[in-house]
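Hey, I was hoping to borrow your eyes for a little while. I've dropped the whole record in just underneath, so have a look:

——
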Amino acid sequence: MLDEIVTRQCGALTRRQALECGLTDEAIRARLRNRWQRVLGSIYVAHNGPVGRDCLLWAAVLRAGDGAVLSYESAAEAVGLVDEQASPIHVTVPTERKVRRTPGIAIHRSNRVDAARHPIRLPPQTRVEETVVDLTQSCDRIGEAIGWITRACGRRLTRPERIASAIDARKKVRWRAELLAAVGDVATGAQSPLEVRYLRQVERAHGLPVGSRQYAVERSGGRSYDDVRYAEFGVVVELDGRVAHPDEACWRDLRRDNASVVGGRRVLRYGWADVAGQPCAVAAQVATVLRCAGWRGAPRRCGPSCMLTSP
């Protein structure tokens, strides 16, 4: 039984678990002298080698006690929402619980721990959508908060409607209306904060046609996706929020753009500075290309200070 617990918990266990499996205090002390080691206070690791990350995450949850779950950046790490290791390790416990302060562990309290807990993932952790909402509430700016939503859905870790349900389940949510609006935009196919901004501040605000998001295209090199495609007019808008491209990404984007041009499509590419800094100018340019391609509509000014001039 002890071996099963140790295996399930990636090598970590509590003193209570050891005693419940029949070990005496003396037997535990003997193992600590020879084969085991202590981590995070009274939590043991059943070997004397390097402590892996999975073991540390388990140890943090065990240290926090019954009902504890990984949360925030640590739950995001466990499910692949972030690629880096969180420091400190974030754990949420029931509101009424008292937990001894331990270096390396950040404790959060919630009266929704049971509802937020993922039903099967181990170590115990919050559901992806609950993790996303938690992270939006720790942001300083709404743009950062929306970024968590787009990332979670872009990585196919959860769905927009699940995030919306998690928001609705909470009595207090900062930026509730804005987050729900962002969830709706992501549901249409926007997969990054830049794509959401283009949809709102360029396309909708200036009355442009509604483009198809993440439009799948089969090309000689395999399947790729156009960020925004105005299929009726053969116009593609690619949105790139990265400050700099890795070399391979550069070539991939160039190949995609070249393939679009060869296929008779007009390709426009914009970065964050364009869409965030000059949305009216971007709208005017897109509208000009669309009209050259056959669009019979006309863009509209987004407000009194709009810099757009009719094409």
Notes: Residues 243-252, 258-263 have pLDDT under 50 and may be disordered. Residues 129-187 form one domain. The two ends are 75 Å apart (CA to CA). The chain has three domains: 2-126, 129-187, 193-292.
